[in-house]
Each structure stands twice: as structure tokens, then as C-alpha cells.
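Title: [Solved] Short-chain dehydrogenase/reductase 3D structure

Original question kept below for reference.
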Amino acid sequence: MKTAIVTGASSGIGRAVATALVARGYRVLGTSRDSSTVADPVPGVDYRDLDLTDRGSIARFIHALDDLAVDVLVNNAGESQCGPLEELPMGAVQRLFQLNVFGAVELTQLLLPGMRQQRRGRIVNIGSMLASFPLAYRSSYVATKAALAGFATAARYELRPYGIEITTVEPGSIATGLSGRRTKYISSDSPYFEQFTSAIAVLDAKEAQGISADEVARTVLEAVEAEQTLPLYAVGSNAPAVFLARRLLPRRVIEAVMAKKYGVGAARTRRVP
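Solution (posted by the thread starter after getting help):
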């Protein structure tokens, strides 16, 4: 039986991926910051504690594997935040990078020796289409997802000779309730307040009508079971047409379309102090 690790498996995409892997016969280790508080555990998933913001927690998680052969790693755990670049607290940005990027990279590093020795492995990073199509007021989140994808895209050349495939799945809008948990950093007297409120309202509305976590999980399963993975899998938000447009149209046209859709980039309506 093959073994898969899915980080952030207690809800949303992580829960859907864990469910799909169990159904395919994998032994699944699902992680949560506190596995004892998982409200609706997936039958057949072995939940374990893992806090990716704590290097000690990562080390303890790896030690507890006790030389277990791991075939699949799905780096899914992460958080979302938004706010004008000018107003993002640096402590919050650093924490987001630790969780969304550095923790995932360190976990991957610690699992790679075993995969290399057994000459097989699949690593799937859960990114976001915002990494390919950045949106105003999402700069920190976009940067973390772009960084994670960059690690995977470059490492493909290093790992393939050892039978290890690494890729990124970029979902578009997903109806997982994430908008209600997104951390917002903006003051009521911010010069960005009106555009921020408008842009995030559009984003929230799109997410409410987005694809299901199960659809993303099917794409992850496709990447896990492919003989050779693609560098990138995009799903939702009309991904095929959108990525085709990005290849064919000038960047300024794409920016103009995004600005119009989300009501950003127009002339200021408030006087800047």
C-alpha cells in the first residue's frame, strides 16, 4: 500500500484530497495543527499534528514517521490574507511566508532523501491561479503561491532522474468558505479603502460561485497518478481559455481586463493625505 501525506487535511481542498486518496487505496496521513480538534475526520485518514510555522513541529512530525516510506506529498496547508501593500504588517507577511512557503519547502526537503532512495515519489504543491494572474490587494498571498510554484518548477529538473515528480496545481475560484477566513489588513481611514472593499467584494462573490474542493482533488489525483506530471495544472475559473489568453495577448491587455473586472487602477476618488 502506498503512503500519502496531505497537509491541512481537516477541511477544504486538503480534506477532499485526503478523501480521494483513501478511495484510491492509499494510506493517508493527514495533518492539522491540532489533530485532536478535527471536527469531521475523514474515515481511513491518520491525522497527525503538524504546525508548519514551527520548525520543531516539522522535525517531530518527520521523526514520528519512523522511516515510513512516503510515496506522495501534497503541500496544501496554508492561509490567505489581503490588504494594500503599504499597510501589510511585516510580521504577518513573514508568518504567511513561513506557513505557505518555508514550512512546505522544509517538509519537502526532509522527505526527499527517502523518495530518492526508493527512486519514486510524487510531490504536489497546491498553488493558486492568482500566482499566474495577480490581483490587487492580494500581493502577499500571490507572492507566496508564486514562490512555491517557482521551487517546484525549478526542482523538476533535479528530481526527475530519481523517479520523483513535482508539480503545482493552481485552482481558480473555489467555494470552500475561504473568503470568510481571509485575514484583512486595512484601516477604515485608508486611502485604499474604497477600491479595496470593491475588489475584495468581487473576489468573494466569485469564490462563492467557484468550483468545489472535490473538483480540485480530482486534478490533484491526476497529477499524483500521472507517469510524468505537467509543470502546472490549472483548474476552475475557465482556466484553459484564461491561460490561452495570457499566452496570446500583451500583458498590458491582461492587466487592463483584470483592473476593469475588479474595479482597481482607476483614478483616485479620495484625497490622499
